[in-house]
Hints:
Distance between the termini: 50 Å
CATH class: Mainly Alpha
Shape: globular
Order of helices and strands: HHEEHEHHHHHEHHHHHHHEEEEHHEEEE
Structural class: alpha+beta
Strand order of the largest sheet: 1-2-8-5-3
Number of strands: 12
Bound molecules: protoporphyrin IX containing FE
CATH architecture: Orthogonal Bundle
Strand content: 5-15%
Number of helices: 17
Amino acid sequence: MHPPDDNLLSPAAIADPQSFFRRLREHDPVLWSERHKVWMVTAHADVQRLFQDQNMSSGRMISGFRKRIQAQHGPLVQHAMGLLDGWMLLNDPPAHGRLRDPVRKAFAPSVVAQLAPRISQHCQALLDQLDPSCDLVADFCRPLTSLVICELLGVDPAEKDFLSDWARAFGRLIYGTSSRDGDYIKAAAVMGDQFYERFSRHLEQRSSEPRADLLSHLLKAGNDESWTHNELIGTCSMLLFAGHDTTSALIASSVHALLQAGEQATLAHADSASVGIAVEELLRFDGPSKTNIRVAQGALELGGHDILPGQHLWLGVMAANHDPSVFAAPQSLDLNRRPNPHLAFGAGIHFCLGPSLARLEAALALPALLQRFPRMRLANPTAPDYSPTIVDRSLRTLPVHLF
Length: 403
Ligand code: HEM
């Protein structure tokens, strides 16, 4: 059989990655893509197994790219790239545990649950300000998740716009590919310098006046673990980056999916247990994770193929979440689906640190929005505006009419 199109960045694949992955899985669930020079893995069992395989390196994911950019641009990108020193996601054991363990406690469900009243207040305040025709991504989802992560870290909410801009510039630098435009290296370098300077100042303040916030916690944990200054500031940047756009993307794509399926009233009036179950389905159905990248450290055999040391693999999270051998009728949004063993938060040692926070934000924001505007409808139902990237699945804009 003729192999299917393997271009994950084609307009068709960006618009409908679920169908793109289905064609790949039906042809061969472990497929070498000559175009992207990667193995594309699309079956749930394989994706889950690879996430848990110690032979898969996360640290080597962008090490070649990083060396190249540093060699070409030297001091210009010193701070922007130096932040990556603190990214647990880009480290393998034992460095990974040294960066992750001290942060883990701060994201425990009991700690995160205390944020609920403030998240609800932010939701209501943002809903009060919405215009009858608006872009939910810019006017609700991004400001909400940005305010929450600022509050958690202990950063002044007035900084939320700077942090959003930094996250976008930084994302274009490290994950960008086709979303890169103009002089994206210079833009990321300028934002990286500003990020470094601001967070150095915040941390200096916390060292003389500790507070009950995550920055003070990180400062203490960093001292205990002898983190370098780059690792400390880099950890702040990892949490801001990981916690911001992903959760915003989840809320936006959930609204989109619910309106498309005519299910908004179901969620608006559900009890909190049912909302929790529905959020898991929304994570599975069209959640923010498309692929996660790994590099084989040694040779392995997978699905009858020999994978060589140094080769890259794309673990198709979205493909796994639509694997019909695990999920009945995967293309249907079933808000009551149980069990729901989706892989939207990954698995293994790099399993997401923020599921409690992401779930809580979605579980509070979605009913609040849908109760307030029960007649909301999509302004652009036939052409959703998805970001053209490999790793994430997110709506750049979500224009709606609220009445
Ligand atoms: C719906 C929202 C979210 C989704 C879908 C998501 C998804 C993921 C996924 C798939 C990974 C694993 C990446 C890999 O193995 O290559 C990951 C890692 C991570 N996530 Fe999330 N995430 C979300 C929200 C958050 C939030 C709110 C935070 C915290 C503020 C967070 C912090 C992290 C961190 C620190 C890691 C790296 C963990 C490690 O390397 O040990 N995420 N996330």
